[in-house]
Amino acid sequence: MAGIGFELRRLLRRDSYLGLLEAYGYAGLISSGPWVLSIIGVLLIGLMSLGTTGDRGEVVQFLVSVTWLMAGSLILTGILQLLFTRFIADRLFEKKSDVVVPNLMGALTLTSLAAMLIGVPVILFGFQATPIYELSLLTTFVVLCDIWIVVVFLTGMKAYRVILLVFVVGYATSVLAALFLAGQGAGLAGLMFGFLSGQALLLFLILWLVIRQYPGERFVEYRFLRRGQVYWSLAGTGFFYNLAIWADKFMFWFNPATSEPVIGPFRASVIYDIPIFLAYLSIIPGMAVFLVRIETDFAEIYDRFYDSVREGDTLQHIRLYKQRMVQIVRQGIYEIFKIQGMTVVILFLLGPHILDALGISRLYLTLFSIDLVAVGVQVLLLAILNVLFYLDRLWTAFAVCLLFLASNVFFTWLTLLAGPEFYGLGFAAAVILASLVGLTLLSRQLARLEYETFMLQ
Q1: CB-based contact 158:3 (threshold 8 Å)
Q2: What 8-state DSSP symbol labels residue 267?
């Protein structure tokens, strides 16, 4: 879905600092906007509502509830996200844009149904809260699941200023509505319903953008589930990748020694949660560099390579394009290391001041520093997986994500046994191991690219 690539190349061709800043700004918005804005929005609601409600317990319950909703929705929709993205990308390549919206509606129908089937029993048997809170919790879970499906279209659109406005409006509505209802004495239920209001608005605004760009004649289709068009490796990759990201958090939440119950079945780990979520705000520069390099230089030379194969170009030209592709991947990884490394170093130095400004104890500083390194390497892992997707090495990407999950569970279990001074090292070791293995497999794939390209025909 190369829409963003065209736009980024147009901005970079200006050959000015303004064009460069715009390109990286848009890339940062599209690549990490939904996740980072979620964190910022929820933190703003939590911090500002303390002065409105005066009930710290309800604020903590809200923050923990949203965290669990985010985790559950990302893991559940991970099964469909990449699979559906590949289907849509293939249909757009075939110039069949009329099937986009009907199949999107089909995907949203299945996603909403699955979210309801999982959420209803949890609400009925796991909670003893007010009906408004429970209904808002369930509805928010469904809406978040649907949002993670529709955001896959954002890279294919060129209306980036509109997209930015949509996200700002959605999250501003969440913050303002939650604070207003909490100030009216609605408490926890008000915070949750206010957050739901903004997320629902965001979902329908994105749907409006998609429907406007991809008009279709039918309302609902399920062609993306037809035999021959389902890539089970992508379903497994999306599921295991999202589960791997949250595996260490779940282990800390369910360990009585490192967590405490908050509301219903939801638990939280004060010692572990705050540093990791603050660290995730640092990924914006690395993600912007990753998207700019992958969707401009690499995507362009990638197209040239496969066009030359299809059109019967000389072997010399094909190998030349392959060598250039390898150079761009190497350069992109180096730039991710450089930019994200600089970001990590700066945040290392500012870490004590950041914690002081947020009123967080400096005892979290060591864990915060470890998490900064871990999420920085995770950007590298995302870049590796993205290149593997481009090269259609889907089962290789699946294996890397499965390794990420297994190693995160194993190393986190070791750190729980070892004690607090080792907390965070499990996730860091897992993402580093998965990245190193992914780099090795990617290097082998690129070395044999022209041979395997011809042999697969």
Answers
A1: yes
A2: E
